[in-house]
Amino acid sequence: QIIVKILFYFSFVSEKQCASLSEAHAQDWDKLLKCAKVGTSIAAEVVRTLVPEVRTYLNCVDFSPPPNPSNCILGYIKIAYELLKRSVNGNINCLVDPLKRGVDFLKPNIAQIDELKCIQ
């Protein structure tokens, strides 16, 4: 009889423990899905706006990258240096304006990520 009572007690405790764990995992999945939805919408918007912004920026600094850059690190460093040099020596608004637009775009999305507490 005592063994039955002990088994009943352990089954009751394990039932409560499993229920609370399942509830906690359900909340984690819900949060994860909400954060993933926000993250994917941000990523999609960044990709959608990034290409035109880069094109506008390159036109503003009058830079056209070589059509077939060498596949070595030095070739990419030279291209990046030339772009940086034109950015600094040219119209600084070419660099500042796209950054301002990017910040304006990211502010509400960052607020949403903070509100959901996606990154803790």
Descriptive key words:
120 residues; mainly alpha; 83% helix; elongated
Set out the fold topology.
Layout: H1 2-60, H2 73-89, H3 93-116
What is the terminal-to-terminal distance?
Answer: 50 Å
Percent of residues in beta strands? under 5%
Which ranges are low-confidence, i.e. pLDDT below 50, for 5 or more consecutive residues? 12-24
Percent range of helical residues: over 70%
| Strand tally | 0
Report on this model:
The chain has helices spanning 2-60, 73-89, 93-116. With 120 residues, it is an all-alpha fold. The two termini are 50 Å apart.
Provide a short characterization of the protein structure:
By secondary structure, this protein is mainly alpha-helical. 83% of the residues lie in helices and 0% in strands. The chain has helices at 2-60, 73-89, 93-116.
